[in-house]
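Worked problem 6 (solution included).
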Amino acid sequence: MSKIILTGVTIEKLKNIVNEAVTQVVTGFTTDQTSKIVISHEPEKKYIYSIRGLAKFMNCSPTTVLSYKSKGIIPFRQSPHAKRFIFVESEILEAMARNGIKGLSETSKSEKK
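Solution. The predicted structure is:
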């Protein structure tokens, strides 16, 4: 990764730099490829970046999360460079509801927001 020195950069320009970098990491596309893709920005999306973090969110063990992941029960993305798993909270909650997985109580969910 190259080093960037930010001097005299506006907040808007910094947001664009960060957004492009995150998009490249999450999607695995180069700058040329990303310019051809329309990405919907949903500010309410919350991400979980680890199996352990998802286990805590779902109130289960990391082993259970790995089992759900390997069976295709929960959706995930994988960063092509860091080989990290990325989960979207809203997608996880939908998958849990669709598959009848008990986890967070309604109280816990509202406290997380």
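Discussion: Residues 1-40 form one domain.
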